[in-house]
Every structure is written in C-alpha cells, then in structure tokens.
Write a structure and sequence with these properties.
single chain, about 200 residues, alpha+beta, 6-stranded antiparallel beta sheet, 9 strands
C-alpha cells in the first residue's frame, strides 16, 4: 500500500523572500484501480485458457498466441491498479496573489489555476461525505467555495488542509513582514459553492 504523503512546497528569491508556498499530494483514483484489477483478472483468465488449450492440443499455435496476448494485460493491470491509480494534486500560493493548481482542479481537471487573490481565502477546510470519502475546500470572505482535493480519507483531507493552511500563513507572514500584504491567519473549520473564486 502506498503511504499518503503531503509534501510542502517553498520557494525563495535571491533575497530570501518567500515567493511560492504550497503543498503537493496524491489522490487515489479508485475507478482506475478497479479497472486495473479487472484487466489483471482478464490476463489471468487468458493465461489459464492458453494453458488448457495447450494441454488439449499440444503445440497448437492458438495456445501460444493467447498467452502472448494475455501477458501484457497482467502488466497493464498491475500498473493501473498500483502506481498509476494515484493522481498528483498541488496548490501553490504565489507572492503576487495567484493560486496555481498545476495538476488541475478536482472538479475541473483541465483548469490549472483558481482566479482571484489568495487574500480572500479565509479558511481551508476538511469535509466528510456520505460515501465515507472526504474532500478539502477553500472558503472565501464572501462565503464562496472551491474544491481543492477530493476522494481522500478524513485523515488525508485533514493533513492536506493543515499543510495548505500553514503554507498560506507562512506566505502571508513573509509578505506582511515586507509590508507587501497584511492578511489574517487562517482558522481551520469545515463547509462547501463559487464569484470570489473563478476557475482559470
């Protein structure tokens, strides 16, 4: 089993000022994992069929061809059910106010940023759902929300929310010390919808 990790992202300029602050994590794509298990089972069934065919008709080319076609399915199944089923996700806060999500937003996978300044972000919260999964949501000063992470466990969601809260607070403190921005520290709460936030 892959251990859940939420890695912090920090980047400083040549004067030591924080210019980027955020976190990167991975989310399990359960649909791909289940598909991988199905493909693996299909490969196993193909090899068993080839073995049976070879015992019934020794030396028949159909047995070899079936085995040849089934073998890649085993490898694909292992790959899709394992490492490939984890999707990268990250949120990076920039000193100029941008909020970048280089691997896409959870509900808008082809979008790479949340439009708006991160000074309107007042809370990054963990949410639990009826299907026992959790998500992470950003809440603005106007009460709008944007999805940051999805399909994670409650412990993973909490870790992502805490790491992102720390990242934004560190950037705000660094900017405030340079008299560039003064914003309140984030509390940690829990809720979830979107005009302070736009998808870019």
């Amino acid at each position: 089993m892959t251990r859940f990790q939420c890695e912090k992202i920090r980047e400083h300029d040549d004067k030591g000022r924080l210019v980027k602050s955020g976190a990167e994590w991975r989310e399990k794509r359960w649909w791909l994992a289940l598909f991988g298990v199905g493909v693996f089972c299909l490969g196993v069934a193909g090899l068993l069929l080839a073995w049976m065919f070879d015992h019934l008709y020794p030396g028949h080319p159909a047995a070899f061809n079936t085995a040849l076609l089934s073998s890649p399915l085993l490898l694909l199944g292992i790959m899709w059910a394992g490492p490939s089923s984890w999707r990268k996700r990250a949120l990076i806060f920039h000193a100029d106010g941008r909020m970048e999500m280089p691997y896409g937003l959870p509900y808008h996978p082809f979008r790479r940023a949340i439009e708006g300044h991160h000074k309107v972000l007042i809370s990054i919260e963990q949410e639990r759902h009826a299907d026992h999964t959790s998500s992470v949501t950003g809440i603005s000063t106007g009460g709008d929300s944007v999805g940051i992470a999805k399909d994670v466990t409650k412990y993973q969601a909490l870790k992502v929310a805490v790491q992102l809260t720390r990242a934004l607070n560190e950037l705000r403190q660094d900017l405030a010390s340079g008299a560039e921005l003064s914003a309140p520290a984030l509390p940690l709460r829990g809720h979830q919808i979107m005009p302070d936030f736009m998808i870019n």
